[in-house]
Amino acid sequence: MINPGLNKYEFVLDNKYFLRELLENVTMEDSLDEIAYRATVKMIITSDFPGIAPGQEARVSGVPFGGSSMIYLLHPGVVWECNSQTKGQKHLPVTIYDRMIYIAKSEDEYLFSAGQTASQRLRQYASDWGIPLGQITDTGIPLAKAIYRAQPIWSMIMSDLKETVTKGGKMYRPRMTPEGLELLALGSNETVWVLEKEQNIEEIGQLRTLEGAVTQVKVLGNAPEDQRSPVLALVKGETDKYGTLQKVLSDSKLTDSGAAKSAGEDLLSGVQETFTVTGIDINAIRAGDKVQFNSMELLVASIKHELGSPGHMTAVLASEDYIRRRYYARSF
Question: What Pfam families does the record point to (predicted)?
Fold first, then answer.
């Protein structure tokens, strides 16, 4: 059935076919685990349907929560997958990504000299791949020399951003916008939404787990292939309380015990805590945004919008420390 609750939304194909009247449901998903914003659009197929195929330009627009005029929610986008279903009336679920999907799926090699920042390297990736740029925040942290063999460009970007955090910088996330590729600090959104039970939140889940906890870090130095690596530092955390959950850190850039101890301390963590909230959809919230929940300022790790009037959303929220350890800790 065509959903009248989607009258505040629009799906446009090839910049000329406005298909709002055919929409059954639209979901949009964003996560720090992925680089591209994803929309799943389900439509009823009529006799005058223009046809759709992977590779076509697409966009999703809508009236933001609390607003009155339509804005782009996912643009520029590309049709990635079509999966028709026929049982009487023909239905067509379509998967659309913003154009960051090309960064996620494409591989290349790069050699970067020492002293460049993650912002400068992002500009280089964008230039080489013909990606227009919007606002690129200066990360301000010089990085070490990097040799990236064939791998997804997204992996290189994340390596640069993780090194930035390791060296004391902020956490950043690339985001595709109508103005071009942007680089934003996590939690830098101007509007910080307040999520409150019995106001706009219907259900709250709280997860506390030792999965992913680190209570002891062994930091290793360099050694010849036929010898064991020297131990530069053994950093203990809450081993008495939670037991020994050890992580081994081996980094050729660490040469003294002081730096090794500091690096090890950055990896220590106790109980991992996240909140999953379900409520009235605030369709402008994206992964990496800051929200206020139960008087705490938290970051959005992932969010799923089920568009409608009103729609619903499900978001996973976590502290800045958790996000730093979970998504921005370097893999050694």
Answer: YQBQ
